[in-house]
């Protein structure tokens, strides 16, 4: 024992004595130092991976990986291989065909530099994989290695800049099939198992390596010699038939559009996708094996135009990643936004010709601006480009700024350069870095050669600076008391002296017509001379077309005019800009919640655009539950319910009826509305041409059970008995305890979530938490807030990338009282050492809670 300890100490001294800073490269996770070192040491990487996947969920998955690589390390730093597991799961390690002594430090296999040959090397490792990223179910599994989870399944160099070629073999139960990034090279079968061997992939990052295995059905369609296969587990064959043609049409169209836009043919061997029940994300862009959540692709017949647009945008987004993210990948996960901004920006372009009947400018505004503002208005706002010191924290970078502010900034960039110059720049960016890595500055450097605009300073303000501008507007009068100039004052919400240069369209309204006046705002004050023609305008509206970014503070005259005369404004884009501006004014205490909900409720009665109706409904629901006092809510409840009920009966098409039905459900508090909904659920009230799906009835049963102690259990039991699909039945059983009127049952359910195994189906967990913290239960569920916050770091470490923020949103979204604010504030005060990114997530998710509490108390 003493001799063994002595050997370990001596080997550690030999390993580290030459470089006192080398502890950085073996800290847990992949540090920036380790990533930079390996970029200099290692190249030409090839993985040969085998997994033996048993039929039983209780059996371990064994594997073997052979890594071939070229080593060019000239210093004395060791070779470090990542394996996020315990040392007993390393069964055997061979290096260059011989046994080798190694250290296992902080989930890294560490080999001394002197053992590694200059040039070609080969390491063979037998191991047992963890289940953490394998998403094992009784009849299928799928991998999800983003951002740093590949090394939980097999030893590897787990960083995006070390691209490699992968050759995969899978031994799976005989009745299963397997799908991976590349095509099948060969398949061997016996009575009990099959072995699939896949072709070598193109160079890809470890987070993009993927495979799926299990019992799946498949559908293949071919267009212009390109075959695409969809794999799925949907038991509703009619739903599959109703959606399949449209899904493939969207997929083929997206591929064709991208090949034309980039001038680069699809860069991978095959294009298949797998539809996963209750998948954690909407989609994941594995080349050759994209994963989608089933509910995002298989829509119900009553799906709204927003649902259809969301599906089209999702398919376009994941397809765009094949070029932007997979073919060319960010150098380091600190710029994960880079792949997302390109995919989101490109997806919006792809969707436009696929939906010629849709107002796409309106779609862009509603998709991106409210979500981006939800973070940027908070004191926990983060810039688009964030610092990342270690890959283990990469999941905390994801959020609305990446997915929503970044596309807005890209739109601004396209306005600056022109669409043809930006397209040419993106083509050059892709060609220069094919199957490699790049960063944002690489694109800016390319575009600098094509425009005279000062892009670097612009990028610094928009990409590297958190927050949003606050813009005030003043009329200035001459000595004759005539309106002579219009002044725009730019500050930032937290008075940190930041400026954001941008173009703003100001609208001068008279006789039902807007005169648009474009203004470039680049300083604290911008002064615009006013002509006689504009001086007697009835209304001056900032950000007329909704494309400018920030909080536009409106004066009383403007607010009053809009409240009284919104019906005069015919353009739906202008109306959406008004709806969003007024929401931000309310949040900044420049408008009362009861005034705003009255305005929105009136607007929803005559708003003709479905996208705007959806926006209004979301705002009304949030105002209703979070910003109104109980007495005010009781006073106006019947009015809103009656408006929605009338719309349910009289609206066309069916999708619009469903939108109003879901909003009616969301604000239902009266006995009358409960009775109406109960009779819809049990079939006594027919909804005309609106055909509710099984999912619709299940969600309705949840809402009814939440509101009725007497009928709740029987409603849930009946609904559960109607569900035939095993996955959906399991989901309902999981959620039911969160709806119980017995506090002991709810407490037990929450306690169960402290076990990581009970959080594996993350969408189920979020749905259940949302019901647990429903506003009708907020007084009772306050006690779960602090324990939920205490779990946050564990959830960040064990959950997938979106889970921490979703966990926080579900925990806090039903609350608006001082007790909830106190719970959050005490937790933040008592945990000053909380990682900054997680602290910011809490601040972002609690922003509406704090504002609602403050506004109601005032």
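^ Assign residues to that structure.
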């Amino acid at each position: 024992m003493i001799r063994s300890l002595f050997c370990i100490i001596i080997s550690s001294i030999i390993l580290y004595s030459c470089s006192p800073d080398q502890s950085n490269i073996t800290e847990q996770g992949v540090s920036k130092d380790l990533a930079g070192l390996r970029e200099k040491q290692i190249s030409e990487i090839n993985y040969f991976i085998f997994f033996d996947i048993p039929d039983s969920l209780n059996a371990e998955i064994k594997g073997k990986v052979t890594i071939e690589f070229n080593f060019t390390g000239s210093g004395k730093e060791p070779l470090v291989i990542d394996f996020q597991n315990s040392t007993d799961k390393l069964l055997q390690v061979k290096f260059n065909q011989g046994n080798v002594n190694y250290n296992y430090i902080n989930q890294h296999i560490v080999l001394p530099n002197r053992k590694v040959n200059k040039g070609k090397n080969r390491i063979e490792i037998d191991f047992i994989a963890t289940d953490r990223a394998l998403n094992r179910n009784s009849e299928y599994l799928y991998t999800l290695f983003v951002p740093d989870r590949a090394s939980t399944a097999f030893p590897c160099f787990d960083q995006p800049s070390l691209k490699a070629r992968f050759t995969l073999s899978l031994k799976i139960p005989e009745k299963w099939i397997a799908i991976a990034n590349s095509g099948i090279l060969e398949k061997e079968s016996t009575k009990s198992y099959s072995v699939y061997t896949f072709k070598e992939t193109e160079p890809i990052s470890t987070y993009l390596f993927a495979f799926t295995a299990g019992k799946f059905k498949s559908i293949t369609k071919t267009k212009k010699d390109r075959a695409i296969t969809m794999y799925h587990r949907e038991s509703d064959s009619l739903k599959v038939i109703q959606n399949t043609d449209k899904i493939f049409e969207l997929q083929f169209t997206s591929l064709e559009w991208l090949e034309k836009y980039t001038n680069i043919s699809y860069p991978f061997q095959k294009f298949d996708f797998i539809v996963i029940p209750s998948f954690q994300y909407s989609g994941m862009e594995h080349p050759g094996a994209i994963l989608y959540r089933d509910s995002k692709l298989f829509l119900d017949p009553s799906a709204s135009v927003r649902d259809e647009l969301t599906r089209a945008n999702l398919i376009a987004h994941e397809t765009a990643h094949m070029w932007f993210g997979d073919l060319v990948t960010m150098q380091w996960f600190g710029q994960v936004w880079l792949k997302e901004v390109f995919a989101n920006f490109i997806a919006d372009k792809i969707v436009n010709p696929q939906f010629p009947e849709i107002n796409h400018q309106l779609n862009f505004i509603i998709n991106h601006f409210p979500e981006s503002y939800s973070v940027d208005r908070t004191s926990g706002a983060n810039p688009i480009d964030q610092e990342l010191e270690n890959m283990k924290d990469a999941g905390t970078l994801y959020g609305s700024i990446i997915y929503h502010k970044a596309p807005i900034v890209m739109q601004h960039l396209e306005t600056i350069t022109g669409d043809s110059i930006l397209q040419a720049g993106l083509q050059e960016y892709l060609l220069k870095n094919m199957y490699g890595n790049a960063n944002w500055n690489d694109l800016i450097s390319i575009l600098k050669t094509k425009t005279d605009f000062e892009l670097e300073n612009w990028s610094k303000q928009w990409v590297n600076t958190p927050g949003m501008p606050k813009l005030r507007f003043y009329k200035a009068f001459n000595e004759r008391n005539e309106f002579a100039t219009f002044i725009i004052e730019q500050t930032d919400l937290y008075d940190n002296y930041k400026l954001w240069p941008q173009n703003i369209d100001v609208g001068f309204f008279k006789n039902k017509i807007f005169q648009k006046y474009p203004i470039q705002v680049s300083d604290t004050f911008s002064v615009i001379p006013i002509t006689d023609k504009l001086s007697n305008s009835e209304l001056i509206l900032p950000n007329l077309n909704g494309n400018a970014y920030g909080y536009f503070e409106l004066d009383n005259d403007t607010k009053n005019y809009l409240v009284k005369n919104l019906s005069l404004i015919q353009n739906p884009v202008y109306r959406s800009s008004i709806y969003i501006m007024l929401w931000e004014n309310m949040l900044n205490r420049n408008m009362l919640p009861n005034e705003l909900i009255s305005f929105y409720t009136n607007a929803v009665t005559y708003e003709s655009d479905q996208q705007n109706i959806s926006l209004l409904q979301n705002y009304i629901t949030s105002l209703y539950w979070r910003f109104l006092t109980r007495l005010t809510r009781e006073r106006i409840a019947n009015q809103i319910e009656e408006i929605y009920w009338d719309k349910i009966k009289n609206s066309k098409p069916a999708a619009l009826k469903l939108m109003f039905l879901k909003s009616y459900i969301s604000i239902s508090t009266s006995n009358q509305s409960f009775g109406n909904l109960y009779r819809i659920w049990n079939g006594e009230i027919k909804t005309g041409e609106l055909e509710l799906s099984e999912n619709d009835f299940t969600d309705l049963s949840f809402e009814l059970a939440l509101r009725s102690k007497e009928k709740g259990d029987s409603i849930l039991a009946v609904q559960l008995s109607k569900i035939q699909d095993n996955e959906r039945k399991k989901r309902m059983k999981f959620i039911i305890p969160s709806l119980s009127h017995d506090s002991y049952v709810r407490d037990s359910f929450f306690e169960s979530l402290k076990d990581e195994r009970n959080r594996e189906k993350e969408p189920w967990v979020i749905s259940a938490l949302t019901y647990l913290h429903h506003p009708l239960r907020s007084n009772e569920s306050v006690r779960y807030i602090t324990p939920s916050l205490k779990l946050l770091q564990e959830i960040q470490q064990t959950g997938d990338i979106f889970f921490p923020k979703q966990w926080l949103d579900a925990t806090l979204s039903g609350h608006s009282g001082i007790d909830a604010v106190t719970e959050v504030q005490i937790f933040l005060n008592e945990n000053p050492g909380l990682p900054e990114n997680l602290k910011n997530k809490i601040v972002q998710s609690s922003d509406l809670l704090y504002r609602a509490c403050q506004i109601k108390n005032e």
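Confidence is low (pLDDT under 50) at residues 1-20.
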